[in-house]
Amino acid sequence: MTRPRNTTGRITFVGAGPGDPGLLTVRAAEILRSAELVIVDPEVSDGIVALVPDSAEIRSAVGDPDEVAKSLIAETRSGRRVVRLVAGDPLASDVLVSEVAAVAASAVRFDLVPAISADAAVPAYAGVPLGSTRVVVDARNEVDWAAVAAAPGVRIITATAGHLGKISAALVEHGLPADLPANK
C-alpha cells in the first residue's frame, strides 16, 4: 500500500538575517505573510517577529534539534504552512543544519530562504571590513583559543556578554596584546 503524499503542507526555513526588518529578503517577507505557524528562534528580533500576521500561531523553538524537527514535520504533515524562522542564515548554525537534515530525511516538502549571517552583518554594522581572511568562532562551544589567537585576519567571535571576560583573557593568554582594538 502506498501512502498518499501531503501536497499542501510545507516547511520553509527562513533566515531573519541580522535582525533589522529592512534587511529581510523580499522572499522571506512574503513567506512570513503567508505562514500559518511560525517556530521562532529566541534570538530573532521583535521587529522581524512583528511581520508575522496576527492569524498565524507563533511558537518558540527551544529544545533538542531532533525534537524541533519532529514538531515541524508533524505540523507539516497535518497540512500546515510552517515557517522555521531563524536568526541569521538557516545554514550558518550546526543546530539548524541538524534540523534541516532531519526534515530532508522525511517525506515532507521544504524550502530554504537564505539571509545574511550575523558573522557578516555585525562587522559590517560596526564598520569592520572583513576582507577574505577571517576566522569565525562560536564561543558557546569548545574553542581552541591558541589557534584563534594565532589566526591571521579578522576574528569574528559569537558570544554573549557573559563570555567576553573569558574570551579576552584566553586570547591575551595565547599571545594577543591586551590593548588590541575590538568592536562589539
What's the arrangement of secondary structure elements?
Layout: E1 10-15, H1 26-33, E2 37-40, H2 46-49, E3 57-60, H3 65-77, E4 81-86, H4 94-104, E5 110-113, H5 118-126, E6 134-138, H6 145-150, E7 154-158, H7 164-173
Parallel strand pairs: 1-4, 1-5, 2-3, 2-4, 6-7
Plain-language structure description:
This protein is α/β, with parallel strands linked by helices and about 180 residues long. It folds into two domains: about 10-115, 3-Layer(aba) Sandwich (Cobalt-precorrin-4 Transmethylase, domain 1), CATH 3.40.1010; about 130-175, no CATH class. About 35% of the residues lie in helices and about 20% in strands. The chain contains seven helices and seven strands, in the order E-H-E-H-E-H-E-H-E-H-E-H-E-H. It has helices at about 25-35, 45-50, 65-75, 95-105, 120-125, 145-150, 165-175; strands at about 10-15, 35-40, 55-60, 80-85, 110-115, 135-140, 155-160. The strands form two sheets. The chain has a five-stranded parallel sheet with strand order 3-2-4-1-5, sandwiched between helices. It has a two-stranded parallel ribbon with strand order 6-7. Helix 3 (about 65-75) packs parallel to helix 4. The longest helix has 13 residues, at about 65-75. The protein is elongated. The N and C termini lie far apart (about 60 Å).
What's the number of domains?
A: 2
Strands of the widest sheet, in order across it, are 3-2-4-1-5
CATH structural fold name of the largest domain = Cobalt-precorrin-4 Transmethylase, domain 1
**What's the average pLDDT?**
88
Question: Alpha-carbon distance between the termini?
Answer: 58 Å
Helix content: 25-40%
User: How many beta-strand elements?
Assistant: 7
